[in-house]
Each structure stands twice: as C-alpha cells, then as structure tokens.
Predict the structure.
Amino acid sequence: MSDQETHPSIFALLLFGYSLAVLGVELLVTTQAVGALMFAILIAGIGESIGGIWELSKGETLIGTTMATFGIWLIGLFLLETLGQVLDLLSPISLGTYFLVLLIPIAILAVPPFKNRMAIPIRGAFAALFLLVLFAGAEFILETGILGPIAGVFAWVAALFIWILAIEDVLEIGHTPVKSAEPVIEPEDSDPT
C-alpha cells in the first residue's frame, strides 16, 4: 500500500466520534456512563494525537493540526477529570475554563473549511464541536441543568459529522489511480549511427 492509499485520519476520526457519542449518552441518557466516557476520552485523545501527528508528517496541515489539538486536549481533559480530582484541582470553574478556552482554537481551525466552502461534513463538525464546547463549558460554570443536555445533542451531531468524514476516507481506499499494466513503448532511436 503506497502513502497515497494510507488514511491515518480514519482511526482517529472513528475514535473521536466514539468519544463524542459516549459523551452524548452521559449527558442525555444516564450519568452512570461516566466511567465509559472517561476511557472513551482517553482512547480518543491517544488516537487523535497519533493520527494528527501522522497526518502532519504527510503534509496534511489542517486535519493534522485539528486532530493533534483535540487529541492533546482530550488527554488533558482525562487527566483533569482523574488526576485533577486526586490533587483537588477539579472544580466546575476549572472544567468550564478548560472547555471555553478551547473555543479559540476551534474558531481558528474552522476558518479554512468555512472560508473555502469545504464539504458540509467538515463544516458541520466544526460548528457542532463549537456549540458542544460552548454549552458544556457554560454548564460547568453556571450549573443550570439545561445547557448540559443541549451540549449532549451537539455531541451526537458532531459524532455523526465526524463519522461521515471517516466513512468518506474509508470509501477512498482502493480508489487511487492505478498505474497502467500496459507496457510503455519507447520511441525508436532515429540516430542512424
């Protein structure tokens, strides 16, 4: 398989979508899914980080930077939720701040997809992620009980768009141009000597 046929974004997108879907379950269905959520965040963080670095090494700046940023952020979220609790650093304000400041990188990374009118799934993913992070961060700080479920809906919407992006990459596998099997006929040398 050549480099043109590799799609390191697939596993990272699948894992990121998975963690968002589990977040939606935790916010909309049952808070008892928090254990599943924590490990979904961890595996998505690792997958996104690896996939992002791999994409960057291939010269794919936008997807690589986006994945690496979210991957490292997710690992940090896992550590804040686990180690931060042990160290007594976890609070609604710290979680809200951690979420809300991510809005700046999301907005910056969303500029090329919207400016260049890229496909709807990538624009939809950025929009849903922005709204998810906004509502989740605000819920942590304000503790309204209303904004969390709204964030859960956007988690599922983001997961759907991200899985669509993964499906598009999967469908590209095997559809790269194939070199012709016909032999190349070299022109005869016209030099009479």
User: Anything to note?
Assistant: The radius of gyration is 21 Å. The helical segments are 9-28, 34-57, 61-86, 92-100, 103-115, 120-142, 147-172. The CA atoms of residues 53 and 63 lie 10 Å apart.
